[in-house]
Amino acid sequence: MGDSAGDLPNDLKFHGPINGNILAAMALARCGVERMFGVVGIPVTSLATRAVSLGIRFIAFHNEQSAGYAASAYGYLTGRPGVLLTVSGPGCVHGLAGISNAMVNAWPFVMISGSCHSSYFGRGDFQELDQVEAVKPFSKFSVKATDISEIPNCVARVLNIAVSGRPGGCYIDLPSDILHQTISESEAERLLGAAEKFTHREVIYRVPNSQIEAAISLLRRAERPLIVFGKGAAIARAEGPLKKLVESTGIPFLPTPMGKGLLPDSHELAATAARSLAIGKCDVALVVGARLNWLLHFGEPPKWSKDVKFILVDICKEEIELRKPHLGLIGDAKEVLESINKEIKDDPFCLGKSHPWVEAISQKSKDNVAKMEVQLARDVVPFNFLTPMRIIRDAIAALGSPAPILVSEGANTMDVGRSVLIQTEPRTRLDAGTWGTMGVGLGYCIAAAVASPDRLVVAVEGDSGFGFSAMEVETLVRYQLAVVVIVFNNGGVYGGDRRTPQEITGPYKHDPAPTSFVPSASYHKMMEAFGGRGYHVETAEELKSALAESFSARKPAVINVTIDPYAGAESGRLQHKN
Question: Where in the chain is the domain with CATH 3.40.50.970?
Answer without folding.
Answer: 18-197, 378-577
